[in-house]
Amino acid sequence: MSFVQGPNGEQVIPIRIDGLALPVHDARLIPVESVSQCKVIHYAHSATPEIATLAADSSQRAFLKWKTSTHVQRRDLLLRTADIIDSWADRFVEVQIAETGCFEGWARFNVSNLTRGMREIASHISHMTTGELPPLEVPGSIVLVYKEPVGPVLVIPPWNAAMILSGRGMAAPIGAGCSVVLKASEMCPQTHHLIVQAYEEAGMPKGLINIVQAAREDATAVTEALIAHPSIRKVEFIGSAAVGRIIGQLSSKYLKPVLMELGGKAPAVVLKDADVKHAAGKIIQGMVMHHGQICMSTDRIVVVQDVAEELISQLKTALATTFAGKQGVAVSRKQAKRGQALLLRAQAAGARFIVGDASLNAEETSLTPTIVTDVKRTDEIFHEEIFSPAAILTVVKDEAEAIQVANDTTYGLNAAVHSRNVLNAIRVAQQIEAGQVHICETTGYDEQTLPIGGTKDSGWGRNNGKYGLAEFLEEKTISIHDPAVSKNRFGDEK
């Protein structure tokens, strides 16, 4: 199991370096509370900057060996680990539900989506690491362009898609030949440790993945110690734009490249020729899934006035029937109350609720799905990611205004366009500033063969399959010149 025994008999998620659990100190325990069980279910051991340094040192030692591994060794490790994760599916489901309060369906989706993603990454290792022989102008010369792993990678995943985002974050660097320091989320440390345990079960070399976590008050110092460490050569962060700015500033301070997938305020644009009933179902699905705690959740609804009344009616119907009670619970009471507060402050400033009332359940763990309109640019909810089963609805006069409203945000992760005219929908999609735009689908659509990432304040770089592998490879050029035929390229010698 992922646990060790704490000084007072507590179940504790340890820090693991070189495949071994570090001794637990009772003054550095992080309580992990389950919102579904309304209690602390276990603890995690919080790291220090000194421990972070040990993890990075270990990753460097492992990298020096792993970078010489063959594409077959890397591929087979990912495939064996994926098989083990699938065989532990029930265990992973139980742990995710306990730590994050998600529905069983979301937990099982995390398992299957991760293992499909790992197999997709594995299938691309051989050709993505293949070098090139570029054509040259200089006679008697050959240039070899190698694809090499960047080095040890710091991966900082969130809790909301606990398996997908952490597992993907490890699989691509390992497939490229890198080692990983995983800074597990303090919200779901057992889930993250269990994935690493699957790698260990599959025969992962010691130190290839070292895993630490930190309490909120320790996180800044631990993270900087890792980013500053000379062995860490790249950072992957998935989380909020606010924290992304901090990670970006730290990484630039130490000249470390960053792959970041940040928040979003995904718009679903409904044009006048849309299948309105279908659009409403996809919008509500994108709004309530996992209590709206997905960076790709439908945060805004932009509808052309011709079909606005019909859409609102269909949204109400979808919520009352297909998606009744499907919003689940928030990861914490604090998160549920945050979403409610955003809505109530907007209402106090003149916005209107047209669906739902922003109320919480008796346990204050779940927000009633709510759609608000008449939101002003000065309202906090206009700019902030809601991260709850709620959305802003804006009625526009035509397609041109719909595009303008969709782009009126600092974010640019996902979007959707609803129209029966595919060519028109593509034309609109091309004008929306987002990394992914989905036609007649939820804003949260994703496949392992597709690149995923953001524009604007939603980050940079791309994940999934070959696109994720490319983020952790860099080119090295080696040129060879025959002295018998090479000549001065810079003019005749004097």
Automatic annotation (TrEMBL):
Q: Which domain of life is it from?
A: Eukaryota
Q: Which UniProt keywords apply?
A: Oxidoreductase
Q: Which GO terms describe its molecular function?
A: succinate-semialdehyde dehydrogenase (NAD+) activity
Q: Give the InterPro entries listed for this entry.
A: Ald_DH/histidinol_DH, Ald_DH_C, Ald_DH_CS_GLU, Ald_DH_N, Aldehyde_DH_dom, Aldehyde_DH_Superfamily
A Gene Ontology biological process noted in the UniProt record is:
gamma-aminobutyric acid catabolic process
SUPFAM superfamilies for the chain: ALDH-like
Q: Which Pfam families match?
A: Aldedh (PF00171)
Give the Aldehyde dehydrogenase domain ranges. 30-478
Catalytic residue positions: E261
Q: Which family does it belong to?
A: Belongs to the aldehyde dehydrogenase family.
Protein name in the entry: Predicted protein
Q: What organism is recorded for this protein? A: Hypocrea jecorina (strain QM6a)
Query: What broad taxonomic lineage does this protein's source fall under?
Result: Eukaryota, Fungi, Dikarya, Ascomycota, Pezizomycotina
